[in-house]
Specification:
It is a single chain. Helices cover 39% and strands 14% of the residues. It is an alpha/beta fold. It folds into 2 domains: 128 residues, Aspartate Aminotransferase, domain 1, CATH 3.90.1150; 240 residues, Type I PLP-dependent aspartate aminotransferase-like (Major domain) (Aspartate Aminotransferase, domain 2, 3-Layer(aba) Sandwich). The strands form 3 sheets. The protein has a 7-stranded mixed beta sheet, with helices on both faces. The chain has a 3-stranded antiparallel beta sheet with strand order 9-10-12. The chain has a two-stranded parallel sheet with strand order 1-11. Helix 9 crosses helix 12. The structure holds 4'-deoxy-4'-aminopyridoxal-5'-phosphate. The site of 4'-deoxy-4'-aminopyridoxal-5'-phosphate has 15 residues, from helix 3. 4'-deoxy-4'-aminopyridoxal-5'-phosphate binds next to helix 3.
């Protein structure tokens, strides 16, 4: 029996999402821009999903734009803000633990002459909201900060940082990559004081290749694509109706149970960590201020990929770091203060509500078994 514990990389689409996608490929396959009734029906699908997502973010539906995923949302938010406001305000503040799609966009802007300030976690592995606020000045056009780190699950103090920034510099645009938080923690745009929010469907039981970008009314950023009038001309291209429909169905299926699921994941994480404590040599890197959906551990002495493949041979699927870096270290764990032998042996275990305590017990036993066998081959 397979045990899938790599839900931060991607999730298995839920039944509701699959049915919604299939419905838009077999019956409701019109182009939302067509003037006939098939087109209108497809447009009603995308309009409805916009409403479903807007309800969760507590924002007007017209502020939600569909994209090809969070990589595009993050790139658009960052490069689009820089293009619209960077001439007068060529400074950006971010953190050193962002996802590659933020990190690489920041590097690109730096190459184009922007000043990019990256705030690192302190010695306790915490990002200080005060340090973020203090880094912002009247030359800053953008602050970009993720909600939940995809490697450790650390929850960043986005609300406090953005609140402080908006009080001092209301014109500074605030962007949050909320991919690992959306539908797992409450993400309301006004509560977190975000002008721009990036979302991805495949982390929440939707499909790959579709995401969202929230843009606050009155906030102007440049679009990255040129074409027809879809998404009010901001993000042209025929809408990916089946995947958008699946995104909406997945969000709807999760709606109203954020707290209940969070509590259940927390219970699982606690019991799993207690079990891990009994294994000498295993260290849990995801501490107090972390999402219970992600548990990062280290097994010093056994390289991540070695243990990962051992677990895989027993049909248990976990990750080393983030899936996007294909096993290569992103440097994020060392930013969080992990010594090389801990970063080299890190495993990311990421949960979904279908995971059970008995699966986590099997994982712990298999890690223990792996430690006995692999230690000789390191
Ligand atoms: N941001 C974070 C925090 C992520 O975890 C991911 C996915 N690994 C992305 C952005 C990119 O999302 P997508 O796969 O939809 O491009």
């Amino acid at each position: 029996m397979e045990i899938y514990l790599d839900n931060a990389a991607t999730t298995k689409p839920c039944r509701e999402a699959v049915n919604a996608a299939v419905g838009c490929m077999t019956e409701n396959y019109g182009n939302p821009s067509s003037l006939h009734s098939k087109g209108l029906k497809a447009q009603l699908v995308t309009d409805n999903v916009r409403k479903i997502i807007a309800k969760e973010l507590a924002c007007p539906p017209e502020c939600v734009y569909f994209t090809s995923g969070a990589t595009e949302s993050n790139n658009t938010a960052i490069l689009g803000t820089a293009a619209a406001h960077g001439k007068r305000r060529p400074k950006i503040v971010t953190t050193s633990v962002e996802h590659a799609s933020v990190k690489a966009a920041m590097n690109e802007l730096e190459n184009r002459g922007f000043e990019v300030v990256r705030i690192s976690p302190d010695k306790d592995g915490e990002i200080s909201h005060e340090q973020i606020i203090n880094a912002v000045d009247d030359r800053t056009c953008l602050v970009s900060m993720m909600l939940v780190n995809n490697e450790t699950g650390y929850i960043l103090p986005v609300r406090r940082a953005f609140y402080g920034i908006k009080k001092k510099f209301p014109q500074c645009i605030t962007h949050c990559d909320a991919v690992q938080g959306f539908m797992k923690l409450p993400v309301k745009v006004n509560t977190i004081n975000a002008d721009l929010v990036s979302l991805s469907a495949h982390k929440i039981y939707g499909c790959k290749g579709v995401g969202g970008l929230y843009i606050r009314k009155g906030v102007h950023i440049s679009g990255m694509l040129f074409g027809g009038g879809q998404e009010k001309g901001f993000r042209p291209g025929t809408e990916n109706v089946p995947m958008i429909a699946a995104f909406g169905a997945a969000v709807k299926a999760l709606s109203g149970t954020i707290q209940q699921r969070y509590d259940e994941m927390e219970r699982l994480k606690k019991l799993f960590c207690q079990r891990l404590e009994s294994i000498e040599g295993v260290v849990v890197n995801s501490g107090e201020n972390c999402s219970p959906y992600i548990i990062n551990i280290s097994v010093p002495g056994i390289r991540s990929e070695i243990m990962l493949h051992y677990l895989e041979s027993k049909e248990i699927f976990v990750s080393s770091g983030s899936a996007c870096s294909k096993g290569a270290q992103s440097g994020v764990l060392t930013e969080f203060g992990l010594k090389p032998q801990f970063a080299d042996s890190a495993l990311r275990i990421s949960l979904c509500p279908q995971n059970t305590l008995s699966e986590l017990r099997v994982l712990a036993e298999t890690i223990e078994e792996g430690m006995r066998r692999l230690v000789h081959t390191k």
